Amino acid sequence: MNDHPGPPVALTFFPDYRAANPVQSQLYDRLPPMIRPQAGALETLAATQGRGSVFHLHWEDAVLRQPGAMAEGFLDRLQAFRGRGGRVIWTIHNLAAHDPALEERLADLRSGLFALADVIHLHSLPAVAAARQRWDLPLHKVRVIAHPSYDGHYPQADRLRARAELGLEDAGMVLLLPGRIAAYKQPQALVAAFAVVARPKDRLIIAGQMEQGLAFPRPDDPRIILRTGHADVAEVAQLHAAADLVVLPYDLSLTSGSALLAATLARGVLGPDCPGLRDAFEAGRGGILYAEGGLQAALADALSEGPAVWAARGQAARSAMAGRDPSMLAAAWADLILRLALQRVGPW
Question: 333 and 269 share a domain?
Answer without folding.
Answer: no
